[in-house]
User: Fold this.
Amino acid sequence: QVESPVVPQPPSILHRTFLPSGDVEGGPLLHRTLAGRSADGSLIAIGTVRVADEGDRRMAAVRAIIAPSWRGRGIGRALLSWQDATALLVLVGAPGEPGVIGVPIAASMVDRRRLYTAAGFSAATRLEVVRRHLGDSPLEGRTSRVHGEAAPGWCARPLESGDTDAVLELLRDLPDPHAFLMHALTHAELLALVEPGLSRVVLEGDTVRGYVLVVPLASRPGADSAVILAISLPGAAPEVRDGVLADTSRTLWSAGYREVMLALTPARAREWARSLTAQSFQGIASDPLYTIELH
Assistant:
């Protein structure tokens, strides 16, 4: 896991973050990975720097994993020093607003928070983590319509290959200033990694208005959890958002999942706060996002 012990990262996300393939157009402007090995060749630490343009701002997302038995020996400081130097080469002098280096750190990881604070990072905001247990009985309702007569003309359906351009346009037109730093994934990478049958596209009539992008959590045997990587439905009425979450939960339950988790940036937390409460999501963590802004 990388960011939080509360929400483990699916293997597909870890692979893309640390060892990306080159098969996705619209990947990061820069990707660098540094691996540390012991004398016998075992991998004991790995760090990465991924840089992308988010709106008018260039951002560097940094991540690191260190084997527990090797922590406390200065490896974290060495990785962070390399990450800072690598990110600065790309960020300094970039056009637009000042660049940002950022990393989310679980609130419980006190030593790691101290390490980044000592390096000049500060907690710019918090990422809210919520979870819903879907239970062992079928969720009420089977229709794909969103909230019946309360939202005429709206529906949700699985993500299809022909939806890619419309979803990418929504992601670009409504940029979330913290989304890239949260996942270290570009918009195109998000779409390449999600499970189409579990994800939902929300339409008003024939027009794509929003999305729920879902990936299974298969980091442990028998896992029956899924993670919502991105969710947005700008301008929709509250009952439409309620219906979209209910539809997503029905889809996951029908596919055998019994738990869904979601990490929210401040922008998405405000947008979905009422509906998450109405759909029985509960907060399980509030993790700080540490950043350095380059002026």
